[in-house]
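// run 5 | inverse folding | seed 20
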């Protein structure tokens, strides 16, 4: 991916299988968020292919892209909610977009999602009445409500206290075990990265520099060892 003369990605190549739980690690500004946006089809790569569920996104029409996107959810860094809509309507939004009209069914899913993120009964609140961490968890509930097959999480636990962090990590693990959800998570938190995934992909200077099981990487891969010791600089 390139913006003007700024080359963000030079050599990024990896494949995820169904049900994989992968963490994407790398210094700030290395292009992790851009990579997720390429995978969900929000950005077009300057060059190269982005295959998602058997389709090469850069070659799809807007309509075809929309069909693929139905199966891919993303929790954005900062998890923006609609401020003028209640928690209920924020979570229901994606469900209505998929064509769901049965209010009873929508209500039941919203309730279930709020229980899962440990915030039952806050349907009527507005985002402005919640703490930052609570908003983030509602963002997670909204992203998961449609039960996407592939989930992209952009720093889902940044800025949260240890309890909220663990809760979100647990939700990611549970969605994988229960529904076989495939996930790609960006995090700077190695403890979370260990909890939620069995494969790490490290990117640095626009390239994949390590890809494998965390224990193996931390023993054998100089880049991974350096990263774990905080020796990588922001780009
Ligand atoms: N629309 C854009 N136009 C030009 N440059 C951009 C644009 N979006 C991002 N960039 C640049 O691309 C690079 C990668 O940005 P990205 O947001 O993917 O980083 P990141 O790895 O997610 O960082 P962080 O860990 O801080 O979130 C940065 O240098 C950024 O300045
Ligand atoms: Mg980012």
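// decoded
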């Amino acid at each position: 991916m390139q913006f003007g003369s700024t080359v963000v990605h030079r050599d990024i190549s990896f494949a995820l299988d169904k049900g994989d739980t992968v963490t994407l690690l790398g210094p700030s500004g290395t292009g992790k968020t851009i990579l997720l946006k390429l995978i969900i089809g929000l950005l077009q790569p300057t060059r190269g292919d982005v295959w998602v569920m058997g389709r090469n996104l850069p070659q799809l029409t807007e309509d075809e892209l929309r069909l693929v996107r139905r199966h891919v959810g993303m929790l954005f860094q900062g998890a923006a909610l609609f401020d003028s809509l209640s928690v209920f309507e924020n979570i229901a939004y994606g469900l209505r977009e998929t064509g769901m009209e049965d209010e009873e069914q929508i209500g039941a899913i919203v309730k279930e999602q709020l229980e899962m993120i440990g915030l039952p009964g806050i349907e009527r609140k507005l985002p402005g009445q919640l703490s930052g961490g609570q908003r983030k968890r509602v963002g997670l509930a909204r992203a998961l409500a449609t039960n996407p097959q592939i989930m992209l999480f952009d720093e889902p636990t940044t800025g949260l206290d240890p309890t909220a962090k663990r809760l979100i990590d647990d939700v990611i693990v549970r969605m994988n075990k229960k529904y076989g959800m495939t996930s790609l998570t960006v995090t700077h938190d190695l403890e979370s990265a260990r909890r939620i995934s069995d494969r790490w992909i490290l990117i640095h200077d626009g390239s994949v520099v390590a890809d494998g099981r965390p224990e193996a990487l931390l023993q054998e891969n100089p880049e991974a060892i350096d990263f774990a010791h905080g020796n990588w600089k922001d780009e």
